Amino acid sequence: MPNPLESLLEALTLSDTGARTSEDIFTGPSQWMPMGRVFGGQVLAQSLMAAMRTVAPDRIVHSMHGYFLRPGDVNLPITFSVDRIHDGRSFGTRRTQAYQNGQPILSMIASFQDGGPGLEHQVEMPSDLPDPESLPSAAELLASVKHPVARSWASERPFDMRHIPSPIYLGVEGEHVAHQAVWLKAIGQLPDDENLHRAALAYASDYSILEPILRRHGVPWATPGIKVASLDHAMWWHRFSRVDEWLLYVQESPSASGGRGLSQGRIFNRDGMLVASVAQEGMVRVPDPSRASRG
Fold first, then answer.
1. Rounded distance between C-alpha atoms, residue 270 and residue 157, angstroms
2. Could you tell me if 68 and 230 are in contact, meaning their C-beta atoms sit under 8 angstroms apart?
3. 208: which of 10, 41, 170, 265 lies 20 to 30 Å off by Cα?
4. In the 8-state DSSP scheme, what is residue 290?
């Protein structure tokens, strides 16, 4: 396998095909995944990078809303078409469609804004959580598990993730609650490109956002027959922070019903600055829901 960080950078370096219709066309590779499906965070981040290529450098993304339409195939490249929907005085809007085999796999709209002064406030970062250095990494926890998915999560991801109170890879320890926190950062230094860091944050935001739903019902990822898939993803960037420095991702699920669950997240840097907010609904199906903890 290639170096995970190099694989991330390769995935986010899109090619301009030179083709033009009424839209801008780019292509990008698919990263290998053990189950053969493209990681949702990858196609989100690539769609965002494609949109960024069509706006002025001084306009930064502040929000994104995307729908996952079909599973992607890791054996195929992805084509991205960007519609320049609107360019106003302060805001611009882009729609990116991601395609494989001529069929859309993701549809996303992103909004961009010129920077400037304004009102400032934010919620406070939790102050009673352990530092990331005191927590075990996925590599340490999963090193002895001989399974392709465990191996991928342990050593083939470009991000180091450390769970509070503990991960739910193999089991759910402690109280079955609908909230958790995850420290995360890239496993190495990334280039000094702020747009790249924003896109990489979108990439990482998709890893664990649905886990509070599983934790609430005592369902680990290792549950036989479990099916979890992202349906949509919304993200708001409030302030810039690098993703190769530790970030705290505080997550909770307010509701699950009908085979779907909603999770929300807030991302802080170590100085307590609120960097971004995230919301995602996902399909969550377990073989026998009656056996899951009702709390």
1. 22
2. yes
3. 10
4. G
Q: pLDDT per residue over 172-201, tens digit each?
A: 999 999 999 999 999 999 999 999 999 999
Mean local confidence (pLDDT), 92-121: 96
> How many Cβ atoms sit within 10 Å of the Cβ of residue 37?
15
How high is the pLDDT of residue 291? 61
CB 160, CB 208: distance < 8 Å: no
pLDDT of residue 36: 87
pTM over 0.90: yes
Instruction: Output the DSSP codes for 117-169.
Output: ------PPPPSSS--GGGS--HHHHHTT--SHHHHHHHHS-SEEEEEES---S
Phi, psi for residue 290 in degrees, rounded to 5: -65, -20
Q: Pairing between strand 227-237 and 274-285?
A: antiparallel
Distance CA 245, CA 42 (A): 20
Q: What is the pLDDT of residues 16-51, one digit of tens each?
A: 877 777 899 999 999 988 888 999 999 999 999 999
* Residue with tokens 């690098």, as numbered in its chain: 242
Cα–Cα distance measured from residue 213 to residue 270, given in angstroms and rounded to the nearest whole number: 26
E-assigned strand segments in the chain: 15-20, 24-28, 59-68, 78-87, 91-100, 103-114, 159-164, 179-186, 227-237, 247-257, 260-269, 274-285
- Active-site residue numbers? 206, 230, 280
Length of the chain: 295
